[in-house]
Protein backbone atom coordinates (compact mmCIF):
# COMPACT_ATOMS: atom_id res chain seq x y z
CA UNK A 1 0.00 0.00 0.00
CA UNK A 2 1.36 3.39 -1.02
CA UNK A 3 1.15 6.00 1.74
CA UNK A 4 1.16 9.76 1.36
CA UNK A 5 4.23 11.64 2.55
CA UNK A 6 2.45 12.56 5.77
CA UNK A 7 1.27 9.03 6.52
CA UNK A 8 4.70 7.65 5.68
CA UNK A 9 6.32 10.05 8.17
CA UNK A 10 3.87 8.90 10.84
CA UNK A 11 4.38 5.24 9.88
CA UNK A 12 8.13 5.63 10.37
CA UNK A 13 7.63 6.98 13.91
CA UNK A 14 5.31 4.26 15.22
CA UNK A 15 7.08 1.84 17.59
CA UNK A 16 6.17 -1.85 17.85
CA UNK A 17 3.19 -1.51 20.17
CA UNK A 18 -0.59 -1.73 20.39
CA UNK A 19 -1.53 1.38 18.44
CA UNK A 20 -4.69 3.46 18.05
CA UNK A 21 -5.27 5.82 15.13
CA UNK A 22 -7.81 8.50 16.01
CA UNK A 23 -9.61 9.74 12.92
CA UNK A 24 -8.42 6.78 10.88
CA UNK A 25 -10.28 7.69 7.67
CA UNK A 26 -9.82 4.75 5.26
CA UNK A 27 -7.47 2.95 7.64
CA UNK A 28 -4.48 3.08 5.29
CA UNK A 29 -1.97 3.78 8.05
CA UNK A 30 -3.18 0.98 10.30
CA UNK A 31 -3.44 -1.52 7.44
CA UNK A 32 0.13 -0.76 6.38
CA UNK A 33 1.45 -0.95 9.95
CA UNK A 34 -0.18 -4.31 10.65
CA UNK A 35 0.53 -5.92 7.28
CA UNK A 36 4.19 -4.92 7.54
CA UNK A 37 4.50 -6.40 11.03
CA UNK A 38 5.12 -2.99 12.57
CA UNK A 39 2.37 -3.43 15.19
CA UNK A 40 0.89 -6.56 16.86
CA UNK A 41 -2.62 -5.13 17.15
CA UNK A 42 -4.41 -1.87 16.56
CA UNK A 43 -7.57 0.18 16.90
CA UNK A 44 -8.91 2.47 14.19
CA UNK A 45 -11.31 5.13 15.48
CA UNK A 46 -13.92 7.20 13.65
CA UNK A 47 -16.76 9.24 15.13
CA UNK A 48 -18.86 9.81 12.00
CA UNK A 49 -20.98 7.07 10.46
CA UNK A 50 -19.92 7.55 6.85
CA UNK A 51 -16.15 7.46 7.47
CA UNK A 52 -16.64 4.64 9.98
CA UNK A 53 -18.48 2.51 7.41
CA UNK A 54 -15.71 3.13 4.84
CA UNK A 55 -13.09 2.28 7.45
CA UNK A 56 -14.86 -0.97 8.38
CA UNK A 57 -15.10 -2.02 4.73
CA UNK A 58 -11.40 -1.28 4.14
CA UNK A 59 -10.37 -3.40 7.12
CA UNK A 60 -12.64 -6.24 5.99
CA UNK A 61 -11.20 -6.11 2.48
CA UNK A 62 -7.72 -6.38 4.03
CA UNK A 63 -8.96 -9.31 6.19
CA UNK A 64 -7.60 -7.74 9.36
CA UNK A 65 -10.74 -6.45 11.09
CA UNK A 66 -10.01 -8.70 14.09
CA UNK A 67 -6.43 -7.47 14.35
CA UNK A 68 -7.10 -3.80 13.67
CA UNK A 69 -10.41 -3.27 15.42
CA UNK A 70 -12.67 -0.47 14.10
CA UNK A 71 -14.26 1.64 16.84
CA UNK A 72 -17.20 3.97 16.33
CA UNK A 73 -16.22 6.34 19.10
CA UNK A 74 -15.34 9.90 20.02
CA UNK A 75 -11.61 10.43 20.38
CA UNK A 76 -9.93 8.14 22.91
CA UNK A 77 -13.09 7.57 24.95
CA UNK A 78 -13.36 3.82 24.36
CA UNK A 79 -9.73 2.81 23.95
CA UNK A 80 -8.68 -0.27 25.98
CA UNK A 81 -5.86 0.08 28.49
CA UNK A 82 -3.63 -2.09 26.30
CA UNK A 83 -3.07 0.83 23.89
CA UNK A 84 0.48 2.13 24.17
CA UNK A 85 0.70 4.41 21.11
CA UNK A 86 -1.85 7.00 20.01
CA UNK A 87 -1.82 8.70 16.60
CA UNK A 88 -3.80 11.91 16.13
CA UNK A 89 -3.41 13.22 12.60
CA UNK A 90 -5.18 15.50 10.18
CA UNK A 91 -6.95 17.72 12.70
CA UNK A 92 -6.48 21.03 14.50
CA UNK A 93 -4.21 21.35 17.51
CA UNK A 94 -7.05 22.49 19.75
CA UNK A 95 -9.07 19.41 18.79
CA UNK A 96 -6.13 17.15 19.61
CA UNK A 97 -5.67 18.77 23.01
CA UNK A 98 -9.38 18.47 23.78
CA UNK A 99 -9.31 14.76 22.93
CA UNK A 100 -6.35 14.18 25.24
CA UNK A 101 -7.54 16.45 28.06
CA UNK A 102 -11.08 15.05 28.12
CA UNK A 103 -9.85 11.58 29.14
CA UNK A 104 -6.52 11.80 31.02
CA UNK A 105 -7.19 8.39 32.55
CA UNK A 106 -6.72 6.85 29.09
CA UNK A 107 -3.15 8.20 28.94
CA UNK A 108 -1.83 6.54 32.10
CA UNK A 109 -0.23 3.62 30.23
CA UNK A 110 0.37 5.43 26.93
CA UNK A 111 4.06 5.66 26.07
CA UNK A 112 3.93 7.38 22.66
CA UNK A 113 1.77 10.12 21.15
CA UNK A 114 2.25 11.06 17.48
CA UNK A 115 0.52 14.17 16.19
CA UNK A 116 0.02 15.88 12.85
CA UNK A 117 -1.78 19.12 13.66
CA UNK A 118 -2.95 21.73 11.16
CA UNK A 119 -3.05 24.54 13.73
CA UNK A 120 -1.80 25.58 17.19
CA UNK A 121 1.41 23.55 16.89
CA UNK A 122 3.43 25.55 19.48
CA UNK A 123 0.61 25.18 22.02
CA UNK A 124 0.46 21.48 21.24
CA UNK A 125 4.18 21.06 21.93
CA UNK A 126 3.84 22.90 25.22
CA UNK A 127 0.75 21.19 26.60
CA UNK A 128 1.57 17.61 25.63
CA UNK A 129 5.02 18.07 27.15
CA UNK A 130 3.33 19.22 30.36
CA UNK A 131 1.39 15.94 30.41
CA UNK A 132 4.63 14.06 31.08
CA UNK A 133 6.02 13.57 27.58
CA UNK A 134 9.09 14.80 25.71
CA UNK A 135 9.60 15.41 22.02
CA UNK A 136 11.55 12.45 20.64
CA UNK A 137 11.29 13.13 16.91
CA UNK A 138 9.98 15.70 14.46
CA UNK A 139 9.63 15.63 10.70
CA UNK A 140 8.44 18.26 8.26
CA UNK A 141 6.78 17.18 5.01
CA UNK A 142 5.29 19.09 2.11
CA UNK A 143 2.18 18.04 0.21
CA UNK A 144 0.29 20.16 -2.30
CA UNK A 145 2.35 23.21 -1.30
CA UNK A 146 1.39 22.86 2.37
CA UNK A 147 3.95 22.11 5.09
CA UNK A 148 3.07 19.70 7.87
CA UNK A 149 4.97 19.05 11.08
CA UNK A 150 4.80 15.49 12.43
CA UNK A 151 5.78 15.28 16.11
CA UNK A 152 6.49 12.19 18.21
CA UNK A 153 6.18 12.47 21.99
CA UNK A 154 7.36 9.73 24.34
CA UNK A 155 6.70 9.25 28.04
CA UNK A 156 9.53 10.73 30.10
CA UNK A 157 10.42 13.29 32.73
CA UNK A 158 9.20 16.78 31.92
CA UNK A 159 11.65 18.64 29.70
CA UNK A 160 12.25 22.38 29.45
CA UNK A 161 11.54 23.92 26.07
CA UNK A 162 12.31 27.51 25.12
CA UNK A 163 9.85 29.70 23.24
CA UNK A 164 11.84 29.04 20.06
CA UNK A 165 11.62 25.30 20.70
CA UNK A 166 7.84 25.53 21.03
CA UNK A 167 7.37 27.71 17.96
CA UNK A 168 9.86 26.12 15.57
CA UNK A 169 10.42 22.67 17.10
CA UNK A 170 13.48 21.72 19.17
CA UNK A 171 14.58 19.10 16.62
CA UNK A 172 13.43 20.82 13.43
CA UNK A 173 15.23 24.09 14.17
CA UNK A 174 18.47 22.28 15.00
CA UNK A 175 18.41 20.06 11.92
CA UNK A 176 17.52 22.98 9.59
CA UNK A 177 16.36 20.69 6.76
CA UNK A 178 15.72 22.03 3.28
CA UNK A 179 11.97 21.78 3.87
CA UNK A 180 12.26 23.64 7.17
CA UNK A 181 14.08 26.51 5.46
CA UNK A 182 11.66 26.48 2.53
CA UNK A 183 8.68 26.71 4.88
CA UNK A 184 9.99 29.77 6.68
CA UNK A 185 11.36 31.45 3.57
CA UNK A 186 7.83 31.14 2.16
CA UNK A 187 6.45 32.59 5.38
CA UNK A 188 8.84 35.55 5.16
CA UNK A 189 7.59 36.26 1.65
CA UNK A 190 4.02 36.04 2.89
CA UNK A 191 4.75 38.50 5.71
CA UNK A 192 6.36 40.97 3.31
CA UNK A 193 3.29 40.76 1.07
CA UNK A 194 0.95 41.36 4.02
CA UNK A 195 2.99 44.38 5.12
CA UNK A 196 2.35 46.04 1.75
CA UNK A 197 -1.25 46.62 2.86
CA UNK A 198 -1.37 50.31 3.83
CA UNK A 199 -4.61 49.77 5.76
CA UNK A 200 -3.05 47.20 8.08
CA UNK A 201 -3.56 48.16 11.76
CA UNK A 202 -0.43 49.08 13.69
CA UNK A 203 -0.82 46.21 16.16
CA UNK A 204 -0.96 43.72 13.26
CA UNK A 205 2.12 45.30 11.71
CA UNK A 206 3.98 44.91 15.00
CA UNK A 207 2.96 41.25 15.31
CA UNK A 208 4.14 40.48 11.78
CA UNK A 209 7.42 42.35 12.25
CA UNK A 210 8.11 40.48 15.48
CA UNK A 211 7.42 37.18 13.76
CA UNK A 212 9.78 38.17 10.96
CA UNK A 213 12.54 38.88 13.49
CA UNK A 214 12.01 35.51 15.17
CA UNK A 215 12.25 33.69 11.86
CA UNK A 216 15.43 35.54 10.89
CA UNK A 217 16.94 34.59 14.26
CA UNK A 218 16.30 30.89 13.56
CA UNK A 219 16.96 30.14 9.90
CA UNK A 220 20.61 30.04 8.91
Present the secondary structure layout:
Layout: H1 5-13, E1 19-22, H2 28-35, E2 42-46, H3 49-61, E3 68-72, E4 85-91, H4 93-102, E5 112-117, H5 121-130, E6 133-143, E7 146-155, H6 163-168, H7 172-175, H8 178-194, H9 202-218
Parallel strand pairs: 1-2, 1-4, 2-3, 4-5
Antiparallel strand pairs: 5-7, 6-7
Helix pairs in contact: 1-2, 4-5, 8-9
Write up what this structure looks like.
This protein has 220 residues and is of the alpha/beta class. 43% of the residues lie in helices and 22% in strands. The protein contains nine helices and seven strands; from the N terminus they run αβαβαββαβαββαααα. The chain has a seven-stranded mixed beta sheet, with helices on both faces. The longest helix has 17 residues, at 178-194. The radius of gyration is 19 Å and the shape is elongated. The mean pLDDT is 95.
Total number of strands? 7
Q: Return residue spans where pLDDT drops below 50 for at least 5 consecutive residues.
A: none
Total helices: the number is 9
User: In terms of structural class, how would the helical and strand content be classed?
Assistant: alpha/beta
Spatial order of the strands forming the largest sheet: 3-2-1-4-5-7-6
Oligomer classification: single chain
Shape: elongated
**Element-level helix/strand string:** HEHEHEEHEHEEHHHH
Strand coverage percent: 15-25%
- The gyration radius over C-alpha positions equals 19 Å
Distance between the termini: 38 Å
Question: What value does the average pLDDT take?
Answer: 95
Biggest β-sheet: count, sense, barrel?
A: 7 strands, mixed
Classify the helix fraction into a percent range. 40-55%
Amino acid sequence: MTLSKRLQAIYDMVPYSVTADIGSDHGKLMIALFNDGRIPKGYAVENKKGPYNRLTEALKEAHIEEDVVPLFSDGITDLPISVSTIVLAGMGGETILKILNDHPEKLKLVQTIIVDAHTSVPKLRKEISEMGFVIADEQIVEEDHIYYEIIKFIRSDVAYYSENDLEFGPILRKEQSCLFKAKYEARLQEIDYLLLDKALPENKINVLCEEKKRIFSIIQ
